[in-house]
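Treating backbone geometry as a discrete language has practical consequences that deserve illustration. The sequence in question and its structure tokens are set out directly beneath this paragraph.
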Amino acid sequence: MTLAELAAESGVPARTVRFYIARGLVDGPEIAGRGATYGRQHLERLREIRDLQQRGLTLAEISGELSGAGQMLPAPAATWQYEVSPDVTVLVRADLAPWRLKQVRSALEQLAARLAEKEES
């Protein structure tokens, strides 16, 4: 079946199918290229993913469940990177509340100033 047919049959948008393929949750098409085709196993995998999502699992958890991996890697986290001095770099989680991020920036500015003083003396 084509991607459009797979999407219609599974109820999963074609864009989402492509995303799942890119994440490794679903295998690529049986025949790639302009006339890409998908089989029953693709449809079954999409239904399995949907069922796991309905149980409340995240995509990271679903990936581990489908691969049979006993231990999953933690979900990737976005970070801000601050170079405090030439030899000190600090990574800060990007999902901080704005007030907390303001506190962290203030502390990093103070640290940078102290390190600069030490380098000058």
Residues 31 and 37 are 5 Å apart (CA to CA). The two ends are 72 Å apart (CA to CA).
